[in-house]
Design goal:
It is a single chain. It is built from eight helices and seven strands, in the order βαβαβαβαβαβαααβ. The protein is globular.
């Protein structure tokens, strides 16, 4: 990562007080970016990350907002602009998988909540970020989707619908702004070792079952997603836009078929 230089670029990572977002915001800072650490409820965790970055010589600030609420997103971007002086990189990472339930048994309110966080929030944030990026004719937007933009997942129809929708949103916005110096991409993580799926990987049987679904035979680490995010946000990826980069250890190549059909 030492040869990637994001010095003085201004980055906002939603949902960066833990998990993948935390790894991404720390990696962007390590590459030289000035970062906005966003949290929804856990201000203490966000401020701890800010302190960690500052102790390492970086420039970071914590900002709170419910990104599924349009007015709070407008206020968030106004605060980020006032503090950082604009935005060059937006990572739409905040998300949730929701309550497991087959469609027939699902709660419409819960279903809508997942779409509000996983699909509408990236729209609200992207819409605000583009106002800055179009004015400066430069910028990068990264949307964190999932292998479940490709793979069905019984009991999680809201999540899969949101992530596949976010994939097409990525392509459409990339098409709209491709000739204006702005790149829009998606990263689709596979199974990554974070707190959201700890109940699986902390259980030996659950971990073994999960590993069988991955061609490389192991779950990923948050920094393996963060490294890809830094690369895509950098000028090294200057000719990449409007696509999804899967970082999944080979989950999408159906390892079950490695020994024949």
């Amino acid at each position: 990562m030492t040869n990637i230089n994001l010095s003085d670029r201004r980055a906002l990572v939603t949902g960066s007080s833990s998990g993948l977002g935390e790894a991404i915001v720390i990696a962007l800072s390590a590459a030289g970016a000035n970062v906005a650490v966003h949290y929804h409820k856990d201000r203490t965790a966000a401020e701890a990350i800010v302190t960690r970055i500052q102790d390492q010589g970086g420039k970071a600030f914590a900002f709170g907002a419910d990104v599924s609420v349009p007015d709070e997103v407008v206020a968030l971007f106004a605060e980020v602009n006032a503090t950082l002086g604009g935005i060059d990189i937006l990572v739409n990472n905040a998300g949730m998988d929701g309550i497991q339930a087959n469609c027939v048994d699902s709660d419409p309110q819960h279903w809508s909540q997942v779409l509000a966080v996983d699909l509408q929030a990236p729209y609200y944030c992207t819409r605000q970020a583009l106002q800055f990026m179009l004015a400066q004719q430069s910028g990068v937007i990264l949307n964190i989707t999932s292998v479940h933009e490709f793979i069905p997942w019984s009991g999680y129809s809201a999540y899969t619908s949101a992530k596949s929708g976010l994939s097409m949103f990525t392509k459409t916005i990339a098409q709209e702004v491709a000739n204006q110096g702005i790149r829009v991409l998606a990263i689709a993580p596979g199974a990554i070792r974070t707190s959201i799926n700890a109940q699986v990987w902390q259980n030996p049987q659950g971990l073994a079952d999960l590993n069988r679904k991955i061609a490389m035979g192991r779950i990923g680490e948050p920094d393996e997603i963060a490294k890809v995010a830094v690369f895509l946000a950098s000028d090294l990826a200057s000719y990449i836009t409007g696509t999804t980069i899967a970082v999944d250890g080979g989950m999408l190549i159906y390892p079950e078929f490695s020994h024949g059909g």
